[in-house]
């Protein structure tokens, strides 16, 4: 059966016009061994790496569909952790630009990411209020920490101690013991959301930033360091602009609550507060690598910088204060200068954390295909290129027409066109003029003309008004027909009026939309007009009699733009639902949906050839869509759409229940995704193949025994594709092909009927010494989640006994091999260090001899000259 009509698929080609998105943070990254030169910024679903010296984009880390919300570089500078809006995390290599590791455990957007000191663990916080600690090396989740009641804002590891501190929008700061995975301390001394926290003074002081103008400092004392159990008195700090800041008694009375008072690991007492100049919330709070410089900023344009003094500097300052106090006391004393006076000096928090400077920026501070020209203009609502592409005409919110020269970027002329907002422009098909529609209930016609430039002898382009069409309602959109005989005008009363261009007489009225028509376009042959409205519908009309051919429910929100593909009856629509859709105006069918934008789409443009579509969105990006040569079959497209909806529904299903798991358990860190479901299906298929092949082998042996000779057994095609391996080896290959971060969740959705076969297989494979670490990981997880059913099954008792013996012996062998290799590497390290020291001294000696030789030459030259 032949195709009656063929469509070609449009695919995403590029994102341009975008420096960075506002949803995520900016981080410095190390590239080519250079630090402080390159920054990574979120750019919709991608991450852009910018060179700050050259102002150029040098690398793009390609994302999928979800928008980037958080970035964190690894301590070694080789990787970048990227958090997304759907709760997933990807680890990108900055050397290759590829993201091979994906963690899926959160149900909402990632709000915080932090590596530990060595880069082996990653803590992630999310809007779902959970904190998950991931094993980056093993590519798996370690545990989930539950306790916060609102979104997580920050998470920090403590160096040298297996502790984690987190803050949230629930006004709480929580301390976690990662050995036992429980919260042992909750600080409740904040009255508003905690937006940031940093550790300073060798991790003995915690500074927090909230929604008010205070930076609160907390002194940390670890259990082994605590000598004086008395709580110090809170300090009174004089702020830079508002006098003395007293610590509130209500706050001090409820500074902390201990989850387990009998197992106290550290104490945290409030040291005082420092007043910021900004009166709004803290957006970012950070320290440099030395821990000396503290910087913070809010939603305004001021960056406040503080310096944290070291112990020696604080002591010097204290000695100076003491000296001044003694001198003052001697002058005021009546007993004489000889007598020693006892003088006490109290150091305040302001003496320890000093304000360095406030940096005023030109705009609000936010976490940034090349633009060829930037022109400063008024609030622009519509625009078009003048024929010849040398000038551009812009319509503004104040009703003005602004004419710019593209080569120089200069404003050539400003004309008061309308008394209200100028909503729409339409270039005439003969390219000699254009028409404008505005909120002053009028349509005005303009012609291009050349006038003498006052600054030169040459003429320049200008426009002049020729006619005006007065109407009863505000004009929202205007459009010429291709033959320039008709003019369509969209009005605020939800109708579209059609007028003759030459006489301006009324021709047709198109009514049927429930809300005003925002956009419209007329087909190349003038036969059809398509209108898009705020009522989310698109209507297709005939321009001969004004009848409505079809009404289509096009988008889930207002239809913002509509344009026909040149020389066809296909058209594109863009909506506030972030989607672009292609339609067939003859068959009234939806062809395809283009998704990629993360906020409302305001407009789009189709190239004259129809090969390219460019869309513009409120996410500050321009996206290029390219028509391919790939045929698009509507039935297949519908099937793909149904599959995507099914996969989305699978991901939203409840997590499978685990026997024996309670609400407080924090072992399971993953979540059910379509990838984990597919991985479980692959495991089930492999086990079934193993069962079938094992049964065939037994049957084949019986046949050979009865026949008294060997009969060749046909090899399964799947096993042949893997190199004629055994069925058990095939199952192992399937396990090795599953991503490490998805392994536990795939086993979790596996039915118990497959577990006995897997236990038998694991025993066989571990005995052979194949991938002992992977098999033990799968074995221990299955024993954990199916413990009750396995121990109650008498058939599995001997299998478990064999597994116990096999696992202990093989793990001991692997441990011995690793120990031997570590000792060998340690020996090689010492050898290399010894050689490098010899080379260092040899280089130093040769360098000294070279200097002596040069000095002798210089002395000889001086003697010769004298």
TrEMBL record:
Domain Small-subunit processome Utp12: 728-830
Assigned keywords, A-Z: Repeat, WD repeat
Entries under Pfam families matching the protein: Beta-prop_WDR3_1st (PF25173), Beta-prop_WDR3_2nd (PF25172), Utp12 (PF04003)
InterPro entries membership: SSU_processome_Utp12, TBC1_cilium_biogenesis, WD40/YVTN_repeat-like_dom_sf, WD40_PAC1, WD40_repeat_CS, WD40_repeat_dom_sf, WD40_rpt
Residue segments, region Disordered: 229-262
Source superkingdom: Eukaryota
The UniProt record lists the keyword Repeat: yes
WD repeat coordinates: 61-102, 103-144, 145-186, 187-228, 415-449, 510-551, 552-593, 594-626
The UniProt record lists the keyword Aminoacyl-tRNA synthetase: no
PANTHER family: WD REPEAT CONTAINING PROTEIN 3 WDR3, WD REPEAT-CONTAINING PROTEIN 3
Record family assignment: Belongs to the WD repeat WDR3/UTP12 family.
Record-given protein name: WD repeat domain 3
